[in-house]
Amino acid sequence: MVAEKIWDDVKKIRLQAPLVHNITNYVVMNSTANALLAIGAAPVMAHSREEVEEMVGLASALVLNIGTLSSSWIEAMLIAGRAAKSRGIPTILDPVGAGATSLRTNAAHKILKEVRPVIIRGNGSEIYALARAEGVTRGVDSTMGAEGAQEAARELSVERTCTVSVSGETDIIIRDKHTIKIRNGHPMMARVTGLGCTASALTGAFAAVNPDPLEAAAHAMALLGIAGEIAAQNADGPGSLQQNLLDVLYTIDKNQIDDHLQCESNVS
Amino acid sequence: MVAEKIWDDVKKIRLQAPLVHNITNYVVMNSTANALLAIGAAPVMAHSREEVEEMVGLASALVLNIGTLSSSWIEAMLIAGRAAKSRGIPTILDPVGAGATSLRTNAAHKILKEVRPVIIRGNGSEIYALARAEGVTRGVDSTMGAEGAQEAARELSVERTCTVSVSGETDIIIRDKHTIKIRNGHPMMARVTGLGCTASALTGAFAAVNPDPLEAAAHAMALLGIAGEIAAQNADGPGSLQQNLLDVLYTIDKNQIDDHLQCESNVS
Amino acid sequence: MVAEKIWDDVKKIRLQAPLVHNITNYVVMNSTANALLAIGAAPVMAHSREEVEEMVGLASALVLNIGTLSSSWIEAMLIAGRAAKSRGIPTILDPVGAGATSLRTNAAHKILKEVRPVIIRGNGSEIYALARAEGVTRGVDSTMGAEGAQEAARELSVERTCTVSVSGETDIIIRDKHTIKIRNGHPMMARVTGLGCTASALTGAFAAVNPDPLEAAAHAMALLGIAGEIAAQNADGPGSLQQNLLDVLYTIDKNQIDDHLQCESNVS
Lengths: 268, 268, 268
Description:
11 helices; alpha/beta; homotrimer; nine-stranded mixed beta sheet; UDP-N-acetylmuramoyl-L-alanine:D-glutamate ligase
C-alpha cells in the first residue's frame, strides 16, 4: 500500500462527493456526518423502513452500524442491505458491541448472512466474537487488540468472502491471504467517542470510489490514523483532538500522507 | 432590511429567551440546541405523541424538521403543529430531503396542508420538489442553488400563503411579491453537518420574537450567514468553524451585523 | 468534603475505567459519552428492551435520563433499573423536564418507585416538581435556583431514601440531614446544551467507584464545576467552552481541584 494510492482515493472523494447512506447509532450520527463532509463525501442518515430502499437508490455506498440497536432498525438495515446488494453498491458493516449482547451478535450475523457486506470493520473484541461465537465485548470497547483477533479476522474473511478491517493500536486489514497492517493513529483517539464508527463511515466513502474493498478499507484506516496523528499534535485533550481531526480531514494533502504513513502488506 | 432591525430581534431573543420546541432529526439535535442556546433562546426537544401537545403549550415557536423521519414522528409533528396553530404560535417547517424519498415529500405536504407553517425553510432542491412535484434531491444536499428555485419558492409562497426561505450561496426569502436576497455566509459552512437545520432552528427563535414571518426568516438567515463569515475568518477547517460559530452567535453585536450585512429587498 | 477525596475518586475512575450504562436522550448522547471518556470512564449507550438487561450485567453504574422520552424507552428504563437493583449497582435518575409534561413527571415517579435510584440529579424546577407535585418546569430549563428547591430536595431525599443532587448557581447535594453546597462552575455553562446531563453521567462514573452516594454525587458536581471554571478561562463563547471542558476533564489534576474547590458541608 502506498501513499500515492490513498491520495488518489481522497482526490476522487473530493471530486465525486459520493453519497454515503448511513444507518447508524444515535451517538455518532452527528460526528460521522461531519467526518464524511470534512473528507468531501456527502452523508445521508435515514433509517425508516419506508424510505431506506429509495435512499439506497441514490447512494454510492451503504454503512450499517449496529450501535444503539432496536428491532425495527435491524429490519431497516436488512431492507437497505438487500437493496444495496441488488444495486451492486458496497455495504460496510460495523458490528458495534457484537459479543456484548445477543441482540447485537445475532443482528450482525443476520446482516452478514442476508446482506453479504464487502467489508466488516470492527474492533478486536467484536471481530473475535463474530468469528468464534465466544469472547465477551465489554460494552462497546474492545478488550482485545487487533493482533489478538488477527486469526479470527482471517477465518471471518474466508467464511464470509469479505474484507475484515480490525482497528486497534495497529489496524489490521485482511482478505483471504492478504494482510495489511497500519501503525498510524494516536492513543488519545480512544478518548473521543465514535472514532471507530468514523472509521467505518470513511470506509464507506473510500469503497464508493475504489472498487477494491481491501484497498478501500486499508486506505480509510490509514487516512484516519494519519489525520488523528496530525490532529493530536496540537490537541490539549480529546475535545480539541476531535475538532482538529475534522479540520485535518478537510485540509490533508499528499505530502502529509507521505510523511506519516506507516504500513506493511503481506500475502501468506 | 436593515442591520438595526436584525439587532433588535437579537436583543429580544437574548432578553426573552423564547422557548423553541424542536421536533427534529437525530443528526442535529445537539448542534441546533447549542446554536439556540448560543443566540440566547431556550431549546427543547420533545417528540413523543404523549407529550408534544403539552410541550407546545409552553413554547413560543415550533420547528418541524423531517430529517431521519419515521411514521410515528410524522404523527407527533402533526399533533404538535395543530396545537401550535390553535395557540397561535408560529410553526417553521424544514423539509429535509423532500424530493429524495416519497416518505419525506409526502410528510412535508401533509404538514403543509394540516399545520400551515408560517415559514418553510429549505434548500433549493427541497423547495423545488415541494412546489413542482418533480426534481430529485440527492440525499439531503441540494443539487440546485436558491436562485434556481426562486420561482418555485414564489409559487409555494402563494399556494401555501406563507414565507419561503431558501438557503444557498445567496439566500432568498420570499413572501408573495416580496423578495429578500442575502449574500452572507461562507462556502465552508456546507462542510458542517446540519447548518441548514440550524438556520431553521434560529428562524424559530426569530419568529418567536418578531411577528412578521418575512422579517423573522430574513433576519435569521442574515444573522447565521454573518456569524458564519466571522467564524470562518479564524477557522482551519469545518471543525473549528463549527466551534467558532457558536462563540460568535453568543458574542455577536450590532457593529458586526452592520459591517457584514449584504442584502437587497424588492417588491415586484 | 475535601479536594483529596475528589481526587481519589478521579484516580479510581481513570484506573478502573468503570462501564457506565446510559439510557439517555438523543440530544446529549454524544456529548455525555465524550465527557465520560474524557474523565476516564467507559460509556455505553443502549436502550432496546431486548438488550438492556444484558448490558446492565456488564456495567458498574446505570444512568437513566428522561429527556426526549417515549413509551418504549420508559419500559426499557424500568427493565434496566430493576436489573441494576438486583445486581446491586447504583442507578442515577436525571428527571429532565419533570414538571413540564405529565409524561415526564409520571415516568420519573414510576422510576423512583420501581427502581429506587440511589441518586436523583436534576435542576431546581425538576426536583421541586418531583417533591411537591406542583410547579411548572419551562421546557427543560429551571425557573428556580437550587436554593429555592432545597427543602423540596430534602423531602424527596427522606421520602425516597436517596441522595438528591440539585444543580444551579450553587449546587446543593442532600441526603437526609446532610447538606453539601458547592459554589463552583461558570454562568456560560448554561449556554452549552446538556451539561446537566453531563453532570448526571459523571455522577454515574463517581458512583461506580465510590460506594457513598452522597460523596459520589458531591464529587461529581464539584469536579464538573471546577472543570467548567477552568474551561471558561480560555473560552470565547459556549463553543470553545464545550471543547475546553473535555480537554480539562482529561487533564485535570489534584492541584487544580485544590485551588478551585469551594464548598461547605452541614449536618442539621
